[in-house]
Amino acid sequence: MARTIRLVLSVLALLLLVSGAWLGLAWAPPDREMGDVQRIMYVHLPSVWMGLLGVTLNFVCSVAYLLNPRRTVANLDADALAEASAEVGLFFGTLGLMLGSIWGRPTWGVFWTWDPRLTSMAILLVAYAGYLALRRFIDDAERRAAWSAVVGIIIAVDIPIIWFSVRWWNSLHQVQSSPKTVDPSMVFVLRWNAVAFLLLWLVFLSTRYVIARSRRERELAPPPLASEVAR
Amino acid sequence: MSALMLLAAQAGRIQGGWEFVWAAYGLTWVSLVLYAASLWARRPGKEP
């Protein structure tokens, strides 16, 4: 059943992505100031949003695990979901940052600048790469879940900093736009692509969750008896 | 007068830049395909 749902979501996501690319590249009007370069927004913003959604889910799972740190099936599921959301969040976040960098070159004149928004995002991604590395270094499943939950909560402090950095400091990055200030056709294309990325995020997350849970089940399975090994 | 205003308005606009747009969309699609392939390779039953 879960596989069928994932397959349906995958097909739907692919259709929306292909049509979303056409809408973004050909149908949407060019921006008044940025011209056609603004079309990068339709992939940059959904990528960053899915990245932040992933790391926010990681924070929620980390809290859920630590609130009830007994080794129960539900808790290990929370840990598996934390692992999956961290990796998927890191993937989309990195993609979003790279796309922003490509967009930055024609608009700001540089691929990278130590702007508060870019720097705080880069710190988040490096921290999540460290989080995933930490998970690989700890063999004991319970200790790994507990330690990474603590690290996940600490890293999450950066999420509101990223969001509000453009308001708190003098940032080269623009503040969040409102649908009221953007042309309706651009809002429509952005929402279309956001839904496509959300469906893909769900497919990636559920697939990665199945992988994480399968690994956890293998780790916690009782070792085979000596007689079974001898056979 | 109107030609001057038009020139002034166009001065701050970004002209062209399609190579950046194609690079961004290309990177997006390649990344999505590669990550999907990595998940497929790691699916349960396929790992040692």
What value does the average pLDDT of chain A take?
Answer: 89
The major beta sheet of chain B can be summarized as: none
The SS-based structural class of chain A is mainly alpha
What kind of oligomer do you see?
A: heterodimer
Counted beta strands of chain A: 0
- Count of domain modules of chain A: 1
Number of helices of chain A: 8
Low-confidence stretches of chain A: none
**H/E element string of chain A?**
HHHHHHHH
Q: Summarize the largest interface: chains and residue counts.
A: A-B, 32 and 24 residues
Radius of gyration of chain A: 20 Å
Shape of chain A: globular
Order of helices and strands of chain B: HH
> Based on DSSP secondary structure assignment, what is the total number of beta strands of chain B?
0
**Cα gyration radius of chain B (Å):** 23 Å
CA-based shape of chain B: rod-shaped
**Beta fraction of chain B:** under 5%
Mean pLDDT of chain B: 81
Summarize the structure in short.
Helix content of chain A is 77%, strand content 0%. Chain A has eight helices and no strands. Chain B is 71% helix and 0% strand.
Please specify the SSE layout and strand pairing.
The complex is a heterodimer of chains A (231) and B (48).
Chain A: H1 2-27, H2 41-67, H3 73-108, H4 116-137, H5 141-155, H6 158-168, H7 184-220, H8 226-230
Helix pairs in contact in A: 1-7, 2-3, 2-5, 2-7, 3-4, 3-7, 4-5, 4-6
Chain B: H1 2-11, H2 18-41
Could you explain the architecture of this structure?
The complex is a heterodimer of chains A (231) and B (48). Helices cover 77% and strands 0% of the residues of chain A. Chain A has one domain. Chain A is mainly alpha-helical and 231 residues long. In chain A, helix 1 (2-27) packs antiparallel against helix 7 (184-220), helix 2 (41-67) packs parallel to helix 7 (184-220) and helix 3 (73-108) packs antiparallel against helix 7 (184-220). The model of chain A has no long low-confidence stretch (mean pLDDT 89). Chain B starts with a helix and ends in a 7-residue tail after the last helix. The interface between A and B is medium-sized, with 32 and 24 residues.
